[in-house]
Amino acid sequence: MSAPNTIVGLGALTDHIATVPQLDTARLQLSAEEGAVLQLVGRVERIDQVLARSRLGEPRTIAVLLSLRAKGAIVPARVVPRGAPAPTLDAAMAEDVDLEPERKKEIIELERSLDSMDHFAVLGLKPGAPAAEVKQAYYNASRRFHPDRYFGKNLGSFRARMERIFRRLTDAHNVLLQPDKREAYLRGHPALAQAEKAAAPPPPAAPPPAASAPTQHLLTPEPPPVHHVAAPAPVSRPSSSPVSRPAPAASVPAPALPSADPVESEARRAERQARLARHPYLARTGRLAELLARGKAAIASGDWERAYHDFHQLQSLDPKNREVATLLVKARRAHDAQRSGAEVMRGLGLEQHGDSLGAMAAYRLACSLDDQNAEAAWRAARLGQLLGQDAAEIRGLAQRAVELDDTRVEHHLTLGKVLLDAGSKKLAKRAFEDAAKLAPDNADAKAALKKLRWTF
Fold first, then answer.
1. What is the reported pTM?
2. Over the Cα atoms of the chain, what is R_g?
3. What would the mean pLDDT of 202-209 be, rounded to a whole number?
4. Are 253 and 226 in contact (CB under 8 A)?
């Protein structure tokens, strides 16, 4: 069977496709078939040339190309004649993703400028910006460039671009926010260090000394006067005479202590607390506690995107924290499960519009995101069986759907059909019998069992 002249989601057979620069294949978890087809694409190749050189056959190769397209591994490319000026943004800007053209252009230009930008420039700050501005700039940038902010949307290759931008933003934030790392970074960039010194506010001038007498007395107090009182001479009195008490001697007054000014004490206490808050260890500890509390609150509210973002940032600050590592894995799995559900819904929409290959690619992506998604496994197996795709893969998907949820008749029926196509009639009959137990009146199960009744 020859491929159509135009493949929905890829383009015409004479169009070119290209591998995304700096592609991290380990993160995408490509299958063996996807890796083989990606090697055929190389840096850039025509679609019909890839189909001709592939050993998988045209239908299967087209399905694999669509899967690579959905994962953001390949993008449409435009090849210009030799000697002609090559457009800088044409290939990436032509990619069909759920982003506005201005947003795509912003992401592309920023990603291509990362290597030439310092930490301040990446965050959009002037050299010498204080920690408070660094925090605010990082928060604002995270809202724009974190890939999970576009949950459920088709980002294509732009997901990898945004992940690279976000990693760079996080590195800049962590360095500029920790005094020791910031000092080491500025030592390696003397121009930035000079700019930071120039931007630092001048130290406050010392107040001129006051010449008033009371102030001088407080600064250099004189010792209090000492009064010598002579002891009274003993007086002889007859025993019968009343006792006359001597006049009390003049008491020596104690020097008065300066009274504490409550306004001044409060100001000194506030200044001390502010100085402690700027201490590197205390500031870092407070930031860790804030992220941990916010991430746990996000888990409690079901906001897995927020939880994953906070725990990911927290792990970068405290990589040896086992609790954070456990929470990050939990948030990542739940977030991937949400994305998997969104891919199933996207596949249903593509299937309703007649794009079976695109739907198959979406179901495969949903299975790779969450291997516990029974719905994704069943729909991928059902559609793959109808399209006549790889029998071993389809059988594994159908078996997984039954193992994850054996209460649905559709799962057993699909497994039975896949096994029947593979020639495993005994196993197929068992699957149809399981379907009949769940729904005795199911017409498909009854027809399949009637057909297989006299085959053994």
1. 0.39
2. 38
3. 58
4. no
